[in-house]
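Batch manifest line 582
LIGAND: adenosine-5'-diphosphate
JOB: complex structure
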Amino acid sequence: MSDGVIRRLAIVLAFLAAVAAVAGGVWRYGYFQALDQLARQGASDLALASDRLTGQLQRYRELAVLVADHPQIGAVLAGEDVAAAEALFLEIADKTAAQDILLTNAEGLVMAGARGGTNGVDIGPLVQRAMQGALGWGNGETQSGARVFAYAAPVFDRNADVQGAIVVSADLASIEWDWVGSNPAVFFTDASDQVFITNRSEIVFWTRSDDAAGLVPPQGLALPFDSYWIGRHEVWQLGWGPYLPENALHITRQLPVIGMTGEALVDVAPARRLAALQAAALAGLCLAFGALLFLATERRRTLAQANALLEARVAERTAALSQTNAQLRQEAEEREEAQAALARAQADLVQAGKLSALGQMSAGLSHELNQPLMAIQNYAENAVAFLEREKPDRARDNLGRIADMARRMGRIIKNLRAFSRQESEPAVRVDLVAVLDSAVELLSPRIKRDEVTLIYDRPSANLWVRGGEVRLGQVFVNLMSNALDAMSESEMRELRLEIAQGDDVKVHFSDTGPGIDVPDKVFDPFYSTKEVGRAEGMGLGLSISYGIVQSFGGEIRGSNRERGALFTVELRRWADLAEAAE
Ligand code: ADP
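JOB STATUS: finished
ARTIFACT:
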Protein backbone atom coordinates (compact mmCIF):
# COMPACT_ATOMS: atom_id res chain seq x y z
CA MET A 1 0.00 0.00 0.00
CA SER A 2 1.34 3.38 -0.95
CA ASP A 3 1.77 6.26 1.52
CA GLY A 4 -1.10 8.16 -0.11
CA VAL A 5 -3.56 5.30 0.35
CA ILE A 6 -2.53 4.84 4.01
CA ARG A 7 -2.93 8.58 4.61
CA ARG A 8 -6.38 8.64 3.05
CA LEU A 9 -7.41 5.52 4.98
CA ALA A 10 -6.24 7.16 8.20
CA ILE A 11 -8.24 10.30 7.38
CA VAL A 12 -11.35 8.26 6.61
CA LEU A 13 -10.96 6.28 9.85
CA ALA A 14 -10.40 9.47 11.86
CA PHE A 15 -13.48 11.00 10.25
CA LEU A 16 -15.56 7.92 11.06
CA ALA A 17 -14.30 8.00 14.64
CA ALA A 18 -15.20 11.70 14.90
CA VAL A 19 -18.68 11.00 13.46
CA ALA A 20 -19.10 8.12 15.93
CA ALA A 21 -18.03 10.38 18.81
CA VAL A 22 -20.39 13.18 17.76
CA ALA A 23 -23.24 10.72 17.20
CA GLY A 24 -22.52 9.20 20.64
CA GLY A 25 -22.65 12.66 22.21
CA VAL A 26 -25.93 13.46 20.47
CA TRP A 27 -27.37 10.13 21.53
CA ARG A 28 -26.40 10.78 25.14
CA TYR A 29 -27.77 14.31 25.12
CA GLY A 30 -30.98 13.22 23.37
CA TYR A 31 -31.37 10.29 25.74
CA PHE A 32 -31.00 12.56 28.79
CA GLN A 33 -33.52 14.99 27.39
CA ALA A 34 -35.96 12.21 26.58
CA LEU A 35 -35.44 10.67 30.00
CA ASP A 36 -36.29 14.01 31.64
CA GLN A 37 -39.48 14.15 29.66
CA LEU A 38 -40.25 10.51 30.38
CA ALA A 39 -39.64 11.12 34.09
CA ARG A 40 -42.06 14.06 34.08
CA GLN A 41 -44.66 11.99 32.27
CA GLY A 42 -44.10 8.99 34.58
CA ALA A 43 -44.35 11.19 37.67
CA SER A 44 -47.70 12.56 36.58
CA ASP A 45 -48.92 9.06 35.66
CA LEU A 46 -47.87 7.85 39.09
CA ALA A 47 -49.57 10.83 40.75
CA LEU A 48 -52.72 10.00 38.86
CA ALA A 49 -52.62 6.35 39.89
CA SER A 50 -51.92 7.31 43.51
CA ASP A 51 -54.78 9.79 43.57
CA ARG A 52 -57.08 7.19 42.14
CA LEU A 53 -56.11 4.64 44.78
CA THR A 54 -56.34 7.03 47.69
CA GLY A 55 -59.63 8.36 46.29
CA GLN A 56 -61.11 4.86 46.12
CA LEU A 57 -59.89 3.99 49.63
CA GLN A 58 -61.20 7.28 50.94
CA ARG A 59 -64.75 5.96 50.51
CA TYR A 60 -64.08 3.16 53.00
CA ARG A 61 -62.54 5.57 55.48
CA GLU A 62 -65.62 7.74 55.38
CA LEU A 63 -67.82 4.64 55.58
CA ALA A 64 -66.06 3.60 58.82
CA VAL A 65 -66.60 7.05 60.35
CA LEU A 66 -70.27 7.07 59.31
CA VAL A 67 -71.04 3.58 60.60
CA ALA A 68 -69.32 4.41 63.92
CA ASP A 69 -71.98 7.07 64.48
CA HIS A 70 -74.89 4.69 63.82
CA PRO A 71 -77.38 4.57 66.79
CA GLN A 72 -77.48 0.77 66.74
CA ILE A 73 -73.78 0.51 67.58
CA GLY A 74 -74.26 1.50 71.24
CA ALA A 75 -76.89 -1.29 71.69
CA VAL A 76 -74.58 -3.87 70.26
CA LEU A 77 -71.78 -2.79 72.59
CA ALA A 78 -74.26 -3.20 75.48
CA GLY A 79 -74.79 -6.75 74.26
CA GLU A 80 -78.16 -6.25 72.56
CA ASP A 81 -79.38 -6.64 69.01
CA VAL A 82 -76.18 -8.18 67.64
CA ALA A 83 -78.05 -10.00 64.85
CA ALA A 84 -79.80 -6.85 63.70
CA ALA A 85 -76.49 -4.97 63.65
CA GLU A 86 -74.80 -7.75 61.68
CA ALA A 87 -77.66 -7.67 59.16
CA LEU A 88 -77.19 -3.91 58.86
CA PHE A 89 -73.40 -4.32 58.39
CA LEU A 90 -73.94 -6.90 55.68
CA GLU A 91 -76.40 -4.71 53.90
CA ILE A 92 -73.97 -1.74 54.00
CA ALA A 93 -71.05 -3.92 52.95
CA ASP A 94 -72.96 -5.28 49.99
CA LYS A 95 -74.01 -1.85 48.89
CA THR A 96 -70.57 -0.25 49.21
CA ALA A 97 -68.53 -3.24 47.97
CA ALA A 98 -66.66 -3.31 51.27
CA GLN A 99 -64.98 -6.59 52.00
CA ASP A 100 -66.17 -6.61 55.62
CA ILE A 101 -67.48 -4.38 58.40
CA LEU A 102 -66.67 -5.30 62.01
CA LEU A 103 -67.45 -3.84 65.42
CA THR A 104 -64.94 -4.38 68.21
CA ASN A 105 -65.17 -3.42 71.86
CA ALA A 106 -62.53 -1.42 73.65
CA GLU A 107 -60.39 -4.54 74.10
CA GLY A 108 -60.34 -5.27 70.42
CA LEU A 109 -62.80 -8.14 70.63
CA VAL A 110 -65.09 -8.53 67.61
CA MET A 111 -68.68 -7.94 68.78
CA ALA A 112 -70.39 -8.10 65.42
CA GLY A 113 -69.37 -8.53 61.77
CA ALA A 114 -70.96 -8.48 58.35
CA ARG A 115 -69.27 -11.70 57.36
CA GLY A 116 -68.21 -12.71 60.92
CA GLY A 117 -64.58 -12.61 62.16
CA THR A 118 -61.37 -10.99 60.99
CA ASN A 119 -60.51 -13.70 58.49
CA GLY A 120 -57.01 -13.78 59.78
CA VAL A 121 -56.28 -10.10 59.27
CA ASP A 122 -54.45 -8.58 62.20
CA ILE A 123 -56.62 -5.62 63.08
CA GLY A 124 -55.02 -5.11 66.53
CA PRO A 125 -52.86 -2.10 65.69
CA LEU A 126 -55.75 -0.37 63.88
CA VAL A 127 -58.16 -0.83 66.79
CA GLN A 128 -55.54 0.34 69.23
CA ARG A 129 -55.16 3.55 67.24
CA ALA A 130 -58.96 3.97 67.18
CA MET A 131 -59.10 3.49 70.96
CA GLN A 132 -56.94 6.58 71.19
CA GLY A 133 -59.69 8.46 69.37
CA ALA A 134 -57.88 8.63 66.05
CA LEU A 135 -58.48 6.92 62.73
CA GLY A 136 -56.56 3.69 62.38
CA TRP A 137 -55.57 2.15 59.02
CA GLY A 138 -53.46 -0.61 57.67
CA ASN A 139 -53.23 -3.45 55.19
CA GLY A 140 -53.22 -7.17 55.55
CA GLU A 141 -53.91 -10.53 54.01
CA THR A 142 -56.89 -12.73 54.73
CA GLN A 143 -56.63 -16.45 55.31
CA SER A 144 -57.86 -16.98 51.79
CA GLY A 145 -54.99 -14.85 50.50
CA ALA A 146 -57.02 -11.79 49.63
CA ARG A 147 -55.31 -8.42 50.13
CA VAL A 148 -57.35 -6.01 52.16
CA PHE A 149 -56.96 -2.44 53.31
CA ALA A 150 -58.83 -1.56 56.48
CA TYR A 151 -59.85 1.58 58.35
CA ALA A 152 -60.77 1.63 62.07
CA ALA A 153 -62.96 4.50 63.33
CA PRO A 154 -63.57 5.03 67.11
CA VAL A 155 -67.09 4.62 68.53
CA PHE A 156 -67.79 7.30 71.11
CA ASP A 157 -70.43 7.18 73.91
CA ARG A 158 -72.29 10.16 75.19
CA ASN A 159 -69.39 11.22 77.29
CA ALA A 160 -67.11 11.18 74.25
CA ASP A 161 -65.23 8.16 75.55
CA VAL A 162 -64.13 5.55 73.11
CA GLN A 163 -66.32 2.44 73.54
CA GLY A 164 -65.11 0.42 70.65
CA ALA A 165 -64.18 0.66 66.97
CA ILE A 166 -65.76 0.08 63.55
CA VAL A 167 -63.36 -1.64 61.15
CA VAL A 168 -64.17 -1.39 57.41
CA SER A 169 -61.99 -3.41 55.10
CA ALA A 170 -61.78 -3.15 51.31
CA ASP A 171 -60.74 -5.87 48.89
CA LEU A 172 -57.80 -4.44 46.97
CA ALA A 173 -58.15 -6.93 44.10
CA SER A 174 -61.50 -5.40 43.18
CA ILE A 175 -59.98 -1.90 43.31
CA GLU A 176 -57.04 -2.99 41.19
CA TRP A 177 -59.30 -4.67 38.68
CA ASP A 178 -59.98 -1.45 36.78
CA TRP A 179 -56.38 -0.62 36.06
CA VAL A 180 -54.65 -3.99 35.62
CA GLY A 181 -52.31 -3.92 32.64
CA SER A 182 -52.45 -0.15 32.11
CA ASN A 183 -49.24 1.76 31.49
CA PRO A 184 -46.88 2.49 33.02
CA ALA A 185 -46.37 -0.38 35.47
CA VAL A 186 -47.22 0.98 38.93
CA PHE A 187 -46.94 -0.66 42.32
CA PHE A 188 -47.41 0.44 45.90
CA THR A 189 -45.26 -0.95 48.66
CA ASP A 190 -46.33 -0.96 52.27
CA ALA A 191 -44.36 -0.24 55.41
CA SER A 192 -42.76 -3.70 55.24
CA ASP A 193 -41.47 -3.00 51.70
CA GLN A 194 -43.85 -5.49 50.16
CA VAL A 195 -45.68 -4.85 46.91
CA PHE A 196 -49.29 -4.72 47.98
CA ILE A 197 -51.15 -3.00 45.22
CA THR A 198 -50.09 -3.04 41.58
CA ASN A 199 -51.37 -3.09 38.01
CA ARG A 200 -48.96 -5.95 37.21
CA SER A 201 -50.25 -8.98 39.13
CA GLU A 202 -47.01 -10.95 38.66
CA ILE A 203 -45.15 -8.83 41.21
CA VAL A 204 -47.72 -8.90 44.00
CA PHE A 205 -46.08 -9.63 47.37
CA TRP A 206 -42.55 -9.14 45.95
CA THR A 207 -40.37 -7.46 48.54
CA ARG A 208 -37.47 -5.09 48.49
CA SER A 209 -34.34 -6.95 49.46
CA ASP A 210 -32.39 -5.40 52.32
CA ASP A 211 -33.45 -1.89 51.46
CA ALA A 212 -31.59 -2.17 48.17
CA ALA A 213 -33.10 -1.33 44.82
CA GLY A 214 -35.14 -3.98 43.05
CA LEU A 215 -37.61 -6.57 44.21
CA VAL A 216 -37.43 -10.27 44.88
CA PRO A 217 -40.27 -12.74 44.66
CA PRO A 218 -41.50 -14.26 47.98
CA GLN A 219 -40.53 -17.78 46.86
CA GLY A 220 -37.86 -19.18 44.60
CA LEU A 221 -34.77 -17.51 43.14
CA ALA A 222 -34.45 -13.82 42.56
CA LEU A 223 -35.00 -12.89 38.92
CA PRO A 224 -32.36 -10.94 36.96
CA PHE A 225 -32.07 -7.37 38.13
CA ASP A 226 -29.65 -4.48 37.97
CA SER A 227 -29.94 -0.77 38.53
CA TYR A 228 -27.93 2.29 37.63
CA TRP A 229 -28.23 6.02 37.54
CA ILE A 230 -28.32 8.29 34.54
CA GLY A 231 -27.99 11.79 35.89
CA ARG A 232 -30.88 12.28 38.28
CA HIS A 233 -32.69 9.22 37.01
CA GLU A 234 -32.59 5.73 38.38
CA VAL A 235 -32.92 3.03 35.74
CA TRP A 236 -33.85 -0.55 36.51
CA GLN A 237 -32.76 -3.37 34.27
CA LEU A 238 -35.24 -6.19 34.61
CA GLY A 239 -35.83 -9.70 33.40
CA TRP A 240 -39.22 -9.97 35.05
CA GLY A 241 -41.38 -11.22 32.26
CA PRO A 242 -43.07 -9.93 29.16
CA TYR A 243 -45.32 -7.38 30.88
CA LEU A 244 -42.58 -5.43 32.52
CA PRO A 245 -40.10 -3.32 30.55
CA GLU A 246 -36.50 -4.49 30.26
CA ASN A 247 -35.13 -1.05 30.99
CA ALA A 248 -37.32 1.14 33.10
CA LEU A 249 -37.16 4.50 34.74
CA HIS A 250 -37.91 4.05 38.45
CA ILE A 251 -40.05 6.83 39.89
CA THR A 252 -41.30 6.96 43.49
CA ARG A 253 -43.86 9.00 45.37
CA GLN A 254 -44.66 8.87 49.07
CA LEU A 255 -48.32 8.31 50.02
CA PRO A 256 -48.47 9.04 53.78
CA VAL A 257 -52.30 8.97 53.81
CA ILE A 258 -52.29 5.25 53.25
CA GLY A 259 -48.80 4.59 54.60
CA MET A 260 -47.43 3.37 51.28
CA THR A 261 -44.90 4.31 48.63
CA GLY A 262 -46.08 4.56 45.05
CA GLU A 263 -43.56 3.43 42.46
CA ALA A 264 -43.71 3.45 38.67
CA LEU A 265 -41.55 1.63 36.07
CA VAL A 266 -41.57 3.63 32.84
CA ASP A 267 -40.16 1.92 29.78
CA VAL A 268 -37.12 3.84 28.48
CA ALA A 269 -37.23 2.16 25.04
CA PRO A 270 -39.03 5.14 23.39
CA ALA A 271 -36.40 7.50 24.84
CA ARG A 272 -33.67 5.26 23.47
CA ARG A 273 -35.37 5.03 20.13
CA LEU A 274 -35.72 8.80 19.91
CA ALA A 275 -32.09 9.36 20.91
CA ALA A 276 -30.93 6.69 18.46
CA LEU A 277 -33.01 8.30 15.73
CA GLN A 278 -31.49 11.73 16.40
CA ALA A 279 -27.96 10.28 16.52
CA ALA A 280 -28.56 8.26 13.35
CA ALA A 281 -29.93 11.30 11.52
CA LEU A 282 -26.92 13.38 12.53
CA ALA A 283 -24.49 10.56 11.71
CA GLY A 284 -26.20 10.11 8.33
CA LEU A 285 -25.88 13.82 7.59
CA CYS A 286 -22.24 13.86 8.66
CA LEU A 287 -21.49 10.74 6.61
CA ALA A 288 -23.24 12.13 3.55
CA PHE A 289 -21.35 15.38 3.92
CA GLY A 290 -18.10 13.50 4.53
CA ALA A 291 -18.72 11.27 1.50
CA LEU A 292 -19.34 14.35 -0.66
CA LEU A 293 -16.21 15.98 0.71
CA PHE A 294 -14.25 12.80 0.14
CA LEU A 295 -15.50 12.46 -3.42
CA ALA A 296 -14.71 16.11 -4.10
CA THR A 297 -11.17 15.78 -2.72
CA GLU A 298 -10.69 12.50 -4.57
CA ARG A 299 -11.81 14.18 -7.78
CA ARG A 300 -9.50 17.10 -7.14
CA ARG A 301 -6.65 14.75 -6.33
CA THR A 302 -7.26 12.71 -9.50
CA LEU A 303 -7.38 15.91 -11.55
CA ALA A 304 -4.19 17.18 -9.91
CA GLN A 305 -2.52 13.84 -10.61
CA ALA A 306 -3.62 13.90 -14.25
CA ASN A 307 -2.43 17.48 -14.49
CA ALA A 308 0.94 16.65 -13.01
CA LEU A 309 1.25 13.71 -15.41
CA LEU A 310 0.33 15.95 -18.31
CA GLU A 311 2.78 18.61 -17.24
CA ALA A 312 5.51 16.02 -16.84
CA ARG A 313 4.75 14.71 -20.32
CA VAL A 314 4.69 18.20 -21.75
CA ALA A 315 8.00 18.96 -20.05
CA GLU A 316 9.40 15.69 -21.39
CA ARG A 317 8.17 16.48 -24.89
CA THR A 318 9.45 20.02 -24.67
CA ALA A 319 12.85 18.75 -23.59
CA ALA A 320 12.85 16.21 -26.43
CA LEU A 321 11.76 18.90 -28.89
CA SER A 322 14.39 21.36 -27.65
CA GLN A 323 16.97 18.65 -28.03
CA THR A 324 15.76 17.83 -31.54
CA ASN A 325 15.70 21.53 -32.27
CA ALA A 326 19.26 21.96 -31.09
CA GLN A 327 20.26 18.95 -33.15
CA LEU A 328 18.50 20.35 -36.20
CA ARG A 329 20.13 23.71 -35.70
CA GLN A 330 23.48 22.02 -35.44
CA GLU A 331 22.73 19.97 -38.53
CA ALA A 332 21.63 23.08 -40.37
CA GLU A 333 24.86 24.79 -39.37
CA GLU A 334 26.81 21.77 -40.49
CA ARG A 335 24.90 21.72 -43.76
CA GLU A 336 25.54 25.41 -44.29
CA GLU A 337 29.18 24.82 -43.61
CA ALA A 338 29.18 21.85 -46.00
CA GLN A 339 27.43 23.95 -48.61
CA ALA A 340 29.97 26.71 -48.21
CA ALA A 341 32.72 24.13 -48.48
CA LEU A 342 31.01 22.69 -51.57
CA ALA A 343 30.71 26.12 -53.14
CA ARG A 344 34.38 26.70 -52.44
CA ALA A 345 35.27 23.30 -53.84
CA GLN A 346 33.08 23.96 -56.85
CA ALA A 347 34.75 27.31 -57.47
CA ASP A 348 38.12 25.61 -57.18
CA LEU A 349 37.01 22.88 -59.55
CA VAL A 350 35.68 25.41 -62.04
CA GLN A 351 39.07 27.00 -61.99
CA ALA A 352 40.77 23.63 -62.28
CA GLY A 353 38.46 22.71 -65.16
CA LYS A 354 39.30 25.93 -66.88
CA LEU A 355 42.96 25.38 -66.48
CA SER A 356 42.53 21.86 -67.79
CA ALA A 357 40.66 23.22 -70.81
CA LEU A 358 43.41 25.78 -71.30
CA GLY A 359 45.92 22.96 -71.29
CA GLN A 360 43.89 21.19 -73.94
CA MET A 361 43.68 24.30 -75.99
CA SER A 362 47.30 25.35 -75.61
CA ALA A 363 48.53 23.35 -78.63
CA GLY A 364 45.90 24.79 -80.94
CA LEU A 365 46.35 28.24 -79.47
CA SER A 366 50.09 28.26 -79.91
CA HIS A 367 49.56 27.19 -83.52
CA GLU A 368 46.88 29.86 -83.92
CA LEU A 369 49.14 32.54 -82.49
CA ASN A 370 52.24 31.29 -84.19
CA GLN A 371 50.74 31.44 -87.66
CA PRO A 372 49.80 35.17 -87.63
CA LEU A 373 53.10 35.87 -85.86
CA MET A 374 54.98 34.20 -88.77
CA ALA A 375 52.75 36.03 -91.23
CA ILE A 376 53.40 39.32 -89.43
CA GLN A 377 57.09 38.65 -89.63
CA ASN A 378 56.84 37.99 -93.41
CA TYR A 379 54.59 40.98 -93.99
CA ALA A 380 56.92 43.21 -91.99
CA GLU A 381 59.98 41.98 -93.92
CA ASN A 382 58.06 42.47 -97.20
CA ALA A 383 56.94 45.94 -96.07
CA VAL A 384 60.58 46.86 -95.36
CA ALA A 385 61.54 45.51 -98.84
CA PHE A 386 58.70 47.43 -100.52
CA LEU A 387 59.76 50.64 -98.74
CA GLU A 388 63.35 50.11 -99.90
CA ARG A 389 62.02 49.64 -103.41
CA GLU A 390 59.94 52.77 -102.88
CA LYS A 391 56.65 51.06 -103.32
CA PRO A 392 54.77 52.62 -100.40
CA ASP A 393 51.37 51.40 -101.53
CA ARG A 394 52.44 47.79 -101.34
CA ALA A 395 54.16 48.51 -98.03
CA ARG A 396 50.92 50.09 -96.61
CA ASP A 397 48.96 47.12 -97.82
CA ASN A 398 51.33 44.82 -95.94
CA LEU A 399 51.22 47.01 -92.80
CA GLY A 400 47.38 46.90 -92.96
CA ARG A 401 47.51 43.09 -93.01
CA ILE A 402 49.90 43.20 -90.05
CA ALA A 403 47.42 45.34 -88.14
CA ASP A 404 44.59 42.88 -88.99
CA MET A 405 46.66 39.97 -87.74
CA ALA A 406 47.60 41.78 -84.54
CA ARG A 407 43.90 42.58 -83.91
CA ARG A 408 42.99 38.96 -84.42
CA MET A 409 45.69 37.85 -81.98
CA GLY A 410 44.55 40.44 -79.46
CA ARG A 411 41.01 39.01 -79.64
CA ILE A 412 42.24 35.50 -79.06
CA ILE A 413 44.23 36.60 -76.02
CA LYS A 414 41.28 38.57 -74.67
CA ASN A 415 39.09 35.46 -74.87
CA LEU A 416 41.71 33.41 -73.12
CA ARG A 417 41.99 35.92 -70.28
CA ALA A 418 38.27 36.04 -69.86
CA PHE A 419 38.08 32.25 -69.81
CA SER A 420 40.70 31.84 -67.14
CA ARG A 421 39.23 34.56 -64.92
CA GLN A 422 37.42 33.35 -61.82
CA GLU A 423 33.82 34.44 -61.79
CA SER A 424 31.49 34.10 -58.88
CA GLU A 425 29.03 36.90 -59.45
CA PRO A 426 25.30 36.17 -59.56
CA ALA A 427 23.59 35.50 -62.89
CA VAL A 428 23.14 38.59 -65.08
CA ARG A 429 21.86 39.46 -68.55
CA VAL A 430 24.10 37.84 -71.16
CA ASP A 431 24.01 37.79 -74.94
CA LEU A 432 23.97 34.10 -75.79
CA VAL A 433 25.09 34.69 -79.39
CA ALA A 434 28.16 36.68 -78.30
CA VAL A 435 29.16 34.00 -75.75
CA LEU A 436 28.74 31.27 -78.36
CA ASP A 437 30.78 33.37 -80.83
CA SER A 438 33.74 33.70 -78.48
CA ALA A 439 33.61 29.96 -77.59
CA VAL A 440 33.64 29.05 -81.29
CA GLU A 441 36.46 31.48 -81.87
CA LEU A 442 38.47 30.03 -79.00
CA LEU A 443 38.14 26.54 -80.47
CA SER A 444 38.31 27.39 -84.14
CA PRO A 445 42.06 26.51 -84.42
CA ARG A 446 41.28 23.03 -83.12
CA ILE A 447 38.21 22.67 -85.35
CA LYS A 448 40.33 23.53 -88.29
CA ARG A 449 43.16 21.23 -87.27
CA ASP A 450 40.85 18.27 -86.67
CA GLU A 451 39.10 18.93 -89.99
CA VAL A 452 35.75 19.17 -88.38
CA THR A 453 32.84 20.77 -90.23
CA LEU A 454 31.07 23.34 -88.05
CA ILE A 455 27.42 23.80 -88.92
CA TYR A 456 26.11 26.87 -87.19
CA ASP A 457 23.27 29.07 -88.34
CA ARG A 458 24.19 32.12 -86.29
CA PRO A 459 21.24 34.36 -85.38
CA SER A 460 21.77 37.97 -86.35
CA ALA A 461 20.07 39.54 -83.34
CA ASN A 462 21.11 39.50 -79.70
CA LEU A 463 19.56 36.80 -77.55
CA TRP A 464 19.40 37.77 -73.92
CA VAL A 465 19.51 34.97 -71.38
CA ARG A 466 20.21 34.63 -67.69
CA GLY A 467 23.83 33.64 -67.00
CA GLY A 468 27.44 34.72 -66.57
CA GLU A 469 29.55 35.46 -69.62
CA VAL A 470 32.68 33.67 -68.55
CA ARG A 471 31.03 30.63 -66.93
CA LEU A 472 28.58 30.12 -69.78
CA GLY A 473 31.50 30.40 -72.20
CA GLN A 474 33.29 27.74 -70.19
CA VAL A 475 30.28 25.41 -70.51
CA PHE A 476 30.11 25.87 -74.29
CA VAL A 477 33.89 25.41 -74.70
CA ASN A 478 33.67 22.24 -72.63
CA LEU A 479 30.78 20.77 -74.63
CA MET A 480 32.44 21.54 -77.95
CA SER A 481 35.82 20.19 -76.75
CA ASN A 482 34.11 16.93 -75.69
CA ALA A 483 32.44 16.69 -79.13
CA LEU A 484 35.79 17.24 -80.86
CA ASP A 485 37.38 14.63 -78.56
CA ALA A 486 34.61 12.14 -79.39
CA MET A 487 34.99 12.63 -83.15
CA SER A 488 38.78 12.27 -83.17
CA GLU A 489 38.50 8.71 -84.48
CA SER A 490 35.40 9.22 -86.61
CA GLU A 491 35.43 9.31 -90.35
CA MET A 492 32.73 11.89 -90.57
CA ARG A 493 33.32 14.90 -88.37
CA GLU A 494 30.44 17.28 -88.08
CA LEU A 495 29.74 19.61 -85.17
CA ARG A 496 26.29 21.16 -85.31
CA LEU A 497 25.18 24.10 -83.16
CA GLU A 498 21.48 24.95 -83.09
CA ILE A 499 19.61 27.56 -81.12
CA ALA A 500 15.93 26.78 -80.52
CA GLN A 501 13.75 29.50 -79.11
CA GLY A 502 10.62 28.58 -77.21
CA ASP A 503 9.62 29.52 -73.68
CA ASP A 504 13.26 28.97 -72.90
CA VAL A 505 16.28 29.15 -75.11
CA LYS A 506 17.88 25.83 -75.97
CA VAL A 507 21.35 25.35 -77.46
CA HIS A 508 21.94 21.93 -79.04
CA PHE A 509 25.45 20.59 -79.59
CA SER A 510 25.41 17.47 -81.76
CA ASP A 511 28.37 15.55 -83.09
CA THR A 512 29.02 12.52 -85.25
CA GLY A 513 31.16 10.66 -82.73
CA PRO A 514 30.45 7.20 -81.26
CA GLY A 515 27.87 8.56 -78.78
CA ILE A 516 27.84 8.48 -74.99
CA ASP A 517 28.75 5.17 -73.30
CA VAL A 518 26.61 5.53 -70.19
CA PRO A 519 24.33 8.57 -70.52
CA ASP A 520 23.29 8.32 -66.83
CA LYS A 521 26.82 8.77 -65.59
CA VAL A 522 28.30 11.49 -67.81
CA PHE A 523 27.46 14.26 -65.30
CA ASP A 524 29.04 12.41 -62.34
CA PRO A 525 32.26 13.96 -61.14
CA PHE A 526 35.42 12.06 -62.18
CA TYR A 527 33.54 9.92 -64.69
CA SER A 528 35.71 9.75 -67.78
CA THR A 529 36.28 7.28 -70.56
CA LYS A 530 39.33 9.11 -71.72
CA GLU A 531 42.81 7.78 -71.28
CA VAL A 532 44.20 8.13 -67.80
CA GLY A 533 47.17 10.41 -67.68
CA ARG A 534 46.02 12.56 -70.52
CA ALA A 535 45.50 16.15 -69.52
CA GLU A 536 41.91 16.19 -70.67
CA GLY A 537 40.74 13.03 -68.92
CA MET A 538 39.76 14.46 -65.54
CA GLY A 539 36.07 13.64 -65.71
CA LEU A 540 35.14 17.01 -64.22
CA GLY A 541 34.12 19.05 -67.26
CA LEU A 542 30.48 17.94 -67.46
CA SER A 543 29.84 17.91 -63.72
CA ILE A 544 31.14 21.46 -63.43
CA SER A 545 29.07 22.50 -66.46
CA TYR A 546 26.03 20.93 -64.81
CA GLY A 547 26.52 22.98 -61.64
CA ILE A 548 27.08 26.19 -63.61
CA VAL A 549 23.95 25.83 -65.76
CA GLN A 550 21.88 24.98 -62.70
CA SER A 551 23.10 28.07 -60.90
CA PHE A 552 21.61 30.09 -63.80
CA GLY A 553 18.26 28.34 -63.29
CA GLY A 554 18.75 26.29 -66.43
CA GLU A 555 19.35 22.65 -67.30
CA ILE A 556 21.86 20.56 -69.20
CA ARG A 557 21.06 17.13 -70.68
CA GLY A 558 23.02 14.55 -72.66
CA SER A 559 21.61 11.81 -74.91
CA ASN A 560 22.48 9.70 -77.93
CA ARG A 561 21.17 10.35 -81.40
CA GLU A 562 21.03 7.99 -84.29
CA ARG A 563 24.59 8.91 -84.87
CA GLY A 564 26.73 10.57 -82.23
CA ALA A 565 25.81 12.45 -79.06
CA LEU A 566 23.50 15.37 -78.41
CA PHE A 567 23.99 17.80 -75.51
CA THR A 568 21.38 20.43 -74.83
CA VAL A 569 21.80 23.52 -72.67
CA GLU A 570 18.52 25.07 -71.67
CA LEU A 571 18.64 28.67 -70.40
CA ARG A 572 16.01 31.07 -69.16
CA ARG A 573 15.24 34.14 -71.23
CA TRP A 574 16.06 37.41 -69.59
CA ALA A 575 12.72 39.01 -70.66
CA ASP A 576 10.75 36.17 -69.00
CA LEU A 577 12.49 36.83 -65.76
CA ALA A 578 11.74 40.54 -65.89
CA GLU A 579 8.07 39.71 -66.44
CA ALA A 580 8.04 37.15 -63.66
CA ALA A 581 9.53 39.68 -61.28
CA GLU A 582 6.82 42.23 -62.06
P1 ADP B 1 36.44 14.43 -69.48
O1 ADP B 1 36.18 15.15 -70.73
O2 ADP B 1 37.59 14.95 -68.72
O3 ADP B 1 36.42 12.93 -69.59
P2 ADP B 1 33.78 15.23 -68.96
O4 ADP B 1 33.01 15.37 -67.71
O5 ADP B 1 33.82 16.42 -69.81
O6 ADP B 1 35.20 14.75 -68.56
O7 ADP B 1 33.20 14.02 -69.78
C1 ADP B 1 32.87 12.83 -69.15
C2 ADP B 1 32.72 11.73 -70.13
O8 ADP B 1 31.51 11.90 -70.86
C3 ADP B 1 33.74 11.60 -71.15
O9 ADP B 1 34.87 10.91 -70.64
C4 ADP B 1 33.02 10.84 -72.24
O10 ADP B 1 33.02 9.47 -71.98
C5 ADP B 1 31.62 11.28 -72.13
N1 ADP B 1 31.29 12.30 -73.16
C6 ADP B 1 31.25 13.64 -73.01
N2 ADP B 1 30.92 14.23 -74.18
C7 ADP B 1 30.72 13.24 -75.07
C8 ADP B 1 30.36 13.21 -76.45
N3 ADP B 1 30.11 14.33 -77.16
N4 ADP B 1 30.29 11.98 -77.06
C9 ADP B 1 30.54 10.84 -76.36
N5 ADP B 1 30.88 10.81 -75.06
C10 ADP B 1 30.98 12.01 -74.43
